[in-house]
Amino acid sequence: MGKKKHQPSGNLIAQNRKARHEYHIEESFEAGLSLSGWEVKSLRAGKAQLTDTYILVRRGEAWLMGAHFTPLNTTSTHEVVDPARTRKLLLHRKEIAKIFSRTQDKGHTCVPLRLYWKGHLVKCELALVVGKQKHDKRETEKKRDWERQKARVVREQR
């Protein structure tokens, strides 16, 4: 019998909660990330932040802009690190072309939703989105409050 590989608790590394509040999600993609060693170690420690990040397509390649991976004190002492560097996203050519053509439309953009582990690989879920208007945000908040109230009533009835 072989040893079981150690799997970190849960596979979610970081989530962009603001994106679901600010945008209507039209279509989502899964992309790999090109990372260096110290970045993987800091992701294992959960030191990633996706607020105010976006996807940029340039010269047929997709890039993750604005993501912040905090370096650990114990690693990367011999290397000069940049926590906010641009990181390459690994996607198929057709997916990159689709993202590029859709982001050229007015009001459309591409944002990362979450970083997660898939086996030993780091994946990024990104989505083509359209910005919400103020009244749409209010409507979403009303629905969320109503769902909470329903759940509270059901819990009290038991």
Automatic annotation (TrEMBL):
It holds the Pfam family SmpB. It comes from Kushneria indalinina DSM 14324. One of its GO terms (molecular function) is RNA binding. GO terms for biological process: trans-translation; trans-translation-dependent protein tagging. Its main location: cytoplasm. It comes from the Bacteria. This is SsrA-binding protein. One of its GO terms (cellular component) is cytosol. Required for rescue of stalled ribosomes mediated by trans-translation. Binds to transfer-messenger RNA (tmRNA), required for stable association of tmRNA with ribosomes. tmRNA and SmpB together mimic tRNA shape, replacing the anticodon stem-loop with SmpB. tmRNA is encoded by the ssrA gene; the 2 termini fold to resemble tRNA(Ala) and it encodes a 'tag peptide', a short internal open reading frame. During trans-translation Ala-aminoacylated tmRNA acts like a tRNA, entering the A-site of stalled ribosomes, displacing the stalled mRNA. Residues 135-158 are annotated as: Disordered. The gene is smpB. It is found in: Cytoplasm. Belongs to the SmpB family. Keywords: Cytoplasm, RNA-binding. Residues 136-158 have a biased composition (Basic and acidic residues).
